[in-house]
Amino acid sequence: MKRGFVIAILFFAVGHSLLAQTVPNVCKEKKLPTFEQYPAEPAYEGKESISILATRLDRKYRTTIRNAASGGGDFAGHFAIAIWGCGTGCKDFVMIDVKSGALFDPLAYQIIYHTPRVEYYPRRVDQYDDLDWWCYSYPILYRVESRLLIIEGCVLGGKQCGRTYFVEANGQLRQVRFDPDLLSNGKVAPF
After folding, report:
1. Domain boundaries of the chain, sorted by first residue
2. How far apart are alpha carbons 167 and 190 in whole angstroms?
3. What is the pTM of this model?
């Protein structure tokens, strides 16, 4: 490969990674949960266990799951998050315990909600062009040193749109805050 192409790819990857973790000023003013408020145990540095593929969904996305797990923990100290697309503007994910190989599908077990996906459709910005909908530049945000997971988009089948904040405890996600997308009149924005 040509050196310029490799540098461009690296620049894009690093830039995308940094953007995904930044919070715009409008969101900072809201005093939303932060990664620092929910510290995790120290990052697991042992050998990763082979993922236990128990469900049909696990087996369907086995390559994505195993690739995520092979990189070690990237969420809450010892979990790896495997994310894949499920259509336009849609993401599915599972949490893999890299110590034990156990998979936790917070969506399938209705820990988050009854929908098996995170939807991040553009929220009709053509109808509401005076609004800045996004607080984060990526639909699912997390860090290895924190138990906080943020979904920027819609859950509950599109009925809850905005930023939903979850905290991991024993392989489960518990919602701790919801910051809705609001119209200029103060009403919650429709999906």
Report:
1. 24-180
2. 26
3. 0.76
Q: Which amino acid belongs to residue 93?
A: F
* In contact, 51 and 82? CB cutoff 8 Å: no
What single string gives the DSSP state of each residue in 9-20? HHHHHHHHHHHH
The tens digit of pLDDT for each residue in 146-160 reads: 999 998 887 766 777
3-state secondary structure 33-60: CCHHHCECCCCCCCCCCCCCCCCHHHHH
Cα Rg, the chain, nearest whole Å: 17
CB proximity list for 10: less than 8 A, separation 6 or greater: none
Bridge partners of 175, per DSSP, are 166
| 191: its two tokens | 């999906």
